[in-house]
Amino acid sequence: MSMLKQFIVYRTDRTDGKAEEIRKATRPLHAEYMKQFHGRVHFGGPMQNKDGVSIGGMMVIDAHDEAEVWEMINNDPFEKAELSSKIEVYQFRWQTKRPATLPPL
User: Fold this and answer.
1) What sequence ranges are listed for the domain YCII-related (predicted)?
2) How far apart (Å, rounded) are the C-alpha atoms in residues 89 and 61?
């Protein structure tokens, strides 16, 4: 089995006025879905504008490769409900305050 890598998932909400309705309807399903990744998601949460309104989300997650990250994203209830207008995935080389649980660089 290959070593896990870290990835940043950066998600921007759709801007047609339906995002909050979709988020509210699917948040419990999203939260339940994410439980299976406990121990693999280092941190994450909603991004907010200056008024405190959610405009997307981000997380840092362990995965074997980018394809595995996209599989997780595509099966997320948020994305099945088409919450996002844009999703970006980047491999992340964690250096500052690197968790001791990750292999050395």
Assistant:
1) 10-93
2) 10
Instruction: Report yes or no: 57 and 45 within 8 Å, Cβ to Cβ.
Output: yes
Whether residue 99 lies inside any domain: the answer is: no
Q: Which residue in this structure is represented by tokens 């968790």?
A: 99
CA pseudo-torsion sign 91, 97, 101, 104: positive
Classify residue 62 by its DSSP letter. E
In a domain, 101, yes or no: no
- Tokens 């200056």 appear where? 50
What does the pLDDT read at residue 54? 94
Mean pLDDT by 10 residues, the chain (105 residues): 87 96 96 93 93 95 96 98 98 80 68
